[in-house]
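Human: I hope this is not a bother. Would you mind checking the protein record under this note? Thank you for your patience.
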Amino acid sequence: MELNEVVSGEGTYVKFVEGTPKPKTKTWNVVAKEGGTELGWIGWFSRWRKYCFFPAGETVYEERCLRDIAQFIQEQTRLHKFKDKA
C-alpha cells in the first residue's frame, strides 16, 4: 500500500482505495489485495442514481469478489443518499 492510499474497505480478495473525488460524489479504485493490480473503479452513474463498478478491460471475477464489490457499492450508495436527505 502506498503512503497516500486511503483504504475505504476490503473484501476477501480486493480493497477499495479512495480515488479523486468529484464535486458531489466520491470515487474508489478497486485493487487486488495480492499483487496490487487495479481491477477497475467505482463511481457515481447519474442515469441510475447510484454508484457502479467500471471494470478494467481483460479482468475476470469470481462470485466472492463480485459479492464484495456489490456490497461496497450498495453501502456507498446508501450513505450518499442518506447524506443528501440530512
Q: What stands out?
A: Helices lie at 63-85. The chain has a mean pLDDT of 92. The two ends are 34 Å apart (CA to CA). The first strand starts at residue 7 and ends at 10.
